[in-house]
Amino acid sequence: MDKTTDGWLSGMIGVVIFSGSLPATRVAVQGLDPLFLTLARAAIAGVLALALLIVFREKRPARSDIVPLLIVALGVVVGFPLLTALALRHVTSAHAIVFIGLLPLATAIFGVLRGGERPQPAFWIFSALGSTAVVGFAARNGVTASLAGDTLMLAAIVACGLGYAEGARLSRHLGGWQVISWALVLSLPAMLPLAWWLRPASFDGVSHAALWGLAYVSLFSMLIGFVFWYRGLALGGIAGVGQLQLLQPFFGLVLAAGLLHEPVPPAMIAVTVAVVACVAGARRFARREPVRS
Fold first, then answer.
1. Does the keyword Membrane apply (predicted)?
2. What does the radius of gyration of the chain's CA atoms come to, in whole angstroms?
3. What are the extents of the domains in the chain?
4. Coil, helix or strand at residue 118
C-alpha cells in the first residue's frame, strides 16, 4: 500500500470515528452532566496523551506555540465538546449532525482569517447557499422550539473550526497527533481536578450506556480519532484527505438511526445533502496557499 492510499484509509477511519461523537455524547448526557462530561473526557484523554508523549519522547513545543495550542485546546478540547453536550439536551443527535456539515466551511473561513488565503468568488456563493440551507431547515422545523440547541451547535462549529485552523498551522512543525496531545496536556492541570470536583456523588445511578458514551468520546473522539485523522492528512495531503470530512454527516445520521433509533426524516437527509454539496463546492473554489506562521 503506497503512502497516498494509506493516508486516505487513515483519514476515512478518523472520519468514521468522529461520526460517532454526537450519538455517543447524546447517550452520555442522558446520565451525566454536560460540564462533567466535557471535563472528564478531556482529563481521560489528557492522561493518555501525556503517556504517549513520554513514551515517544516528543520534544516540548516552543514558547511561541503555547498560545496557539491554548486556542486549539479552547476550540476542540473544551469548546466543541461542551457546546455540543449542552446542545444535545435540546436537540437530537441527528438534528445536530446537520450542523456538522458546516464544519469544513468554518475551518476554511478561519483559514482565510488566520492563514491569509484568498478564495475565489464562487467560494462565497457556495458558502451563502450552505448557510441558507441550514437556517431554512431550522426555521422550517420551528426555530423557536430549538433556538437554544441550534445556537449552541453553531457556536460549537465556530469553536471547532478555529481549533482545526490553529491545529493545521501548528502541525506543520509540531506534527499531527502531537498537536492534539500537547493541547490535551496543557488542559490537563485544569481538567483533571475540575472533573474530580464535579464528579457525581455516586455512579450507581448512571446507566451503562452513559458510561460507554463517556468512554467513547474520551478514547476515540478526543484522542484516537485525531491520531488517524492527522496521520491521514500527513500521508495523503491536507487538501485531498480533508474532503473526507464531508462524509461525516452521512455516517453520523446512519449511526443516530441505527444505534439510537432516532427518526431521520427525508427533509433532514435532504438538507444534509445540500449542505455537504455546498461545502464541497466552496472547497473546490478555495485557493489553498501555504499557511503562514
1. yes
2. 18
3. 3-284
4. coil
